[in-house]
């Protein structure tokens, strides 16, 4: 009778696996069952304390879908509607050295928002960290349409959710396109819920410099933020004038992040032939974080587009934000420039 070594090895492996299964079954049987609750029923595990919203640090809107809306930020577009309700307000450079806003909504949804304007390639580099949000915008140039389709966002532009948009009276085109937010989200029933994008909230870190005002600059625009001790937030100013909300009051936030990122030339151009800037939000760089009447020198890091952006102090400790709305103001790392 011949013996085959490989058959012996196989047999030994089977016996070993059987022994492991028996041991694991015995371990499971040895674990005591949950203690009966009063009345004879089995006690359920203690509920996990509710988490905080990763966008604002509050306990609101943990299971709401995420909606991103492109909003004009030129002088003719002011006052904007709905920004007071945003969780995060991104300010990005576009053609001509001007800026445009991408507002992220989840914890609180305004009834209407606008004026809605077209998307840019920088948006598609920011949004992957949010999973698969809904994106409302008025359109994109034809060469960028394949990039939008491949981005994975829920496209709720007028081409796909036309019934959600309307033209407001008393405003000239193209600054009169507004949207009904509930109708937008009806077209994105599986939009992502809030997820960790790197923000950390809590008491202010040690240090910081007393600051009354900070100005962010682009080639053709400026935005300033002035600390209001009465309102406990940084009030926004556009071109030296108070940045008013269409609902009333002045725009602003408890935390403003001025993120310095390389602004380069993309492959896209607008109808005038100007190159569209690409703000590079993946990598590392410096930042200034404004909170509680102070400015903090910080560093930002984002390893990939699918990951969030973390902010740390010079010592490497987490740079915590004040709870509430956050503005992320993206400016060129260097002098303002039109690529």
CATH topology: YerB-like fold
Strand content: 25-35%
* Form type: globular
**Largest sheet, strands/sense/barrel:** 11 strands, mixed
Q: What is the mean pLDDT?
A: 88
Q: How many domains make up the 3D coordinates?
A: 1
User: How far do the termini sit from each other?
Assistant: 82 Å
CATH class: Alpha Beta
Uncertain runs: 1-50
Structural class: alpha+beta
CATH homologous superfamily placement: YerB-like
Could you please describe the fold and organization of this structure?
- With 339 residues, this protein is α+β, with helices and mostly antiparallel strands.
- It has one domain: YerB-like (YerB-like fold, 3-Layer(bba) Sandwich), CATH 3.50.90.10.
- The chain is 14% helix and 31% strand.
- It is built from five helices and 21 strands.
- Strands 1, 2, 3, 5, 6, 9, 15, 18, 19, 20 and 21 form an eleven-stranded mixed beta sheet that branches. Strands 10, 11, 12, 13 and 14 form a five-stranded antiparallel beta sheet that branches. Strands 4-8-7 form a three-stranded antiparallel beta sheet.
- A hairpin with a 4-residue loop joins strand 10 and strand 11.
- It is globular, with a radius of gyration of 26 Å.
- The N and C termini lie far apart (82 Å).
């Amino acid at each position: 009778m011949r013996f085959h070594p490989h058959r012996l090895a196989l047999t030994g492996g089977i016996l070993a696996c059987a022994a492991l299964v028996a041991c694991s079954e015995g371990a499971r049987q040895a674990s005591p069952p949950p203690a009966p609750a009063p009345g004879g029923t089995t006690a359920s595990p203690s509920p996990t304390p509710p988490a905080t919203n990763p966008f604002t640090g509050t306990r609101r809107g943990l299971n709401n879908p995420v909606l991103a809306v492109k909003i004009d930020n030129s002088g003719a577009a002011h006052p904007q509607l709905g920004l007071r309700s945003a969780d995060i307000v991104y300010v990005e450079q576009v053609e001509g050295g001007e800026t445009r806003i991408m507002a992220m909504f989840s914890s609180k949804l305004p009834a209407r928002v606008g004026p809605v304007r077209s998307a840019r390639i920088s948006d598609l580099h920011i949004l992957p960290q949010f999973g698969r949000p809904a994106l409302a915008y008025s359109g994109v140039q034809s060469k960028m349409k394949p990039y939008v389709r491949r981005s994975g966002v829920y496209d709720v532009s007028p081409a796909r959710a036309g019934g959600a948009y309307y033209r407001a009276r008393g405003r000239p085109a193209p600054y009169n396109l507004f949207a009904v937010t509930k109708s937008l989200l009806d077209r994105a029933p599986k939009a992502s819920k809030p997820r960790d994008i790197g923000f950390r909230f809590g008491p202010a870190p040690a240090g910081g410099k007393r600051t009354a005002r900070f100005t962010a600059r682009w080639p053709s625009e400026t935005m300033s933020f002035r600390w209001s001790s009465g309102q406990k937030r940084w009030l926004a100013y556009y071109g030296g004038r108070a940045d008013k909300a269409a609902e009333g009051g002045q725009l602003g936030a408890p935390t403003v992040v001025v993120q310095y990122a390389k602004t380069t030339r993309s492959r896209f151009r607008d109808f005038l032939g100007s190159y569209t800037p690409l703000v590079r939000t993946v990598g590392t760089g410096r930042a200034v974080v404004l909170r509680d009447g102070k400015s903090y020198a910080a560093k930002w890091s984002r390893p990939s587009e699918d990951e969030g952006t973390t902010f740390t102090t010079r010592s490497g400790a987490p740079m915590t934000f004040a709870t509430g709305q956050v503005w992320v103001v993206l400016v060129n790392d260097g002098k303002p420039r039109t690529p």
